[in-house]
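Notes on consecutive records. When two proteins share a document, each keeps its own sequence and its own token line. Never mix them. Below: protein one.
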Amino acid sequence: MYVVIDILPQGISSVYFYYEPDFGFLKLGVYSALKEIELTRQLAREIPDIKYYYLGFYVHTCVKMRYKLNEWINTQPKTNAIQLICHMLTNDTPPPDELLNRLRSRQKRWYKKLVKLKTQNKLSFETDIHLLIKRFNRMKTNLIQSLEQMLQFNEQSKNKFECRLLRSYPPSEEFTRTLKESHLIYERYQMAIHGDTKSECSFSQYKRFLCQSTLEKDCSRIPSSKIPSCGYGSFHLQYYLNNKIIACSVIDILP
């Protein structure tokens, strides 16, 4: 047996990701990567120097991360609309002039609508999973609609998707309440994806592997003004579909 550890300064380290195998068709690994980058960018507003690490790599140098981010994009038609929406979901800077100059009048109006939605916090990675589900369903039935149509937000949607960042150690009350449900998903994931036996992914092994931690919430050598509002330590970023956990990212926020 061996243990791999990361000692990383001032950043978010992606430790592990698992999901309900029945929802594998949703490309949840792609979504989790995007969501963790969004979380890093949110914390960067409080701590400008914070970085995002993926299995020990800076996000911009990790080949696997680039593959995950591009996996869904590469399945879509290479339209101006697709390139615009993907750029806006992953960047705070305007799209390149080369792309904007290719837009027709209708597309420029659509782009202005995206900018307005983003300033209102209505265009984020929470909407990305909504688009992903609708795109997937339409690809299966060969009834693909335009991205403009898919961007219509429906407050009465049949499905509700949300993310919750929970401190895993010391465990928060909500984390403790969802621990067994989260373990069952981990167990099914390990058995279906990695071929583990049930005994190899027991509840005690799961807690030791992904829940227990030596990281602390505060760091005495860092001024309180530079500590993120959620604190440092170990967290589970849980993904819910219709109030049921379908995936989880295990992350560390490090001083």
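Protein two starts on the next line and is unrelated to protein one.
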Amino acid sequence: MNRWKLHIAAVLLVLVGALLMPGAVYAQEGQNTESIQIEVDAGYQGFYRTSQWFPIAVDVSNTGPDVRGVLEWRYRVNDDELVFRQEIDLPRGARKRLMLYGLSNNFARVGDLRLLVDEQVLFQEQVSLSPLEAELYVIGVLSTDPTLLNSLEAMQLENTSGAQVVHLNPEHMPEQSTALQGLNAIFVHDITTADLTAAQQAALEMWVRTGGVLVLAGGSSAEQTVPGLADLLPVEVGDLQAM
């Protein structure tokens, strides 16, 4: 009997010791949600084409204790149980931008982004989505003008149900060409394309080679729009000259 008591006491000591270990303290401290700030930019200005991959840009900062967890994207509807996950390491003071990629087959209008630590929800945000039907002609616009080319939505195109203009954030351009397949065309105006990362430029190149239509603004804007994407143009653009 005494042996059993000693054995139970030893087990209890081990359990208590485990709870007091730094890892357990870290997990408890990590539950402070105020130290975690997350901003989400899903799709193309919130739009996405059903059955096509789309980008989900996530900006994360941490002012609290070190956090190691998983970013998770899922839908409020039963979208064939589609769940997308990516591990994330957030030491104190970290600021990171991660790119997730989502896909929906069921016209989902709401997505959930969650940060999980030890499978417990540390942060959760509901994100509104606007699904686009396959027959729409979708035009992405990279410009500092938030209304540029919006009038194209009145355009009638053959073999389409209409046009949809979506404004893109150059910093959130995907680095995977598959996440651009929801766009039929991209118009670039007064954006310094040389600031795009090599992976973003490569994604655009692959998208063009698989049928995407890329239009770069000329004139005075060409000095900004051309340099980062010059290899994709069918012509060589020279310096702007005054007449």
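For the record: The first strand starts at residue 36 and ends at 42.
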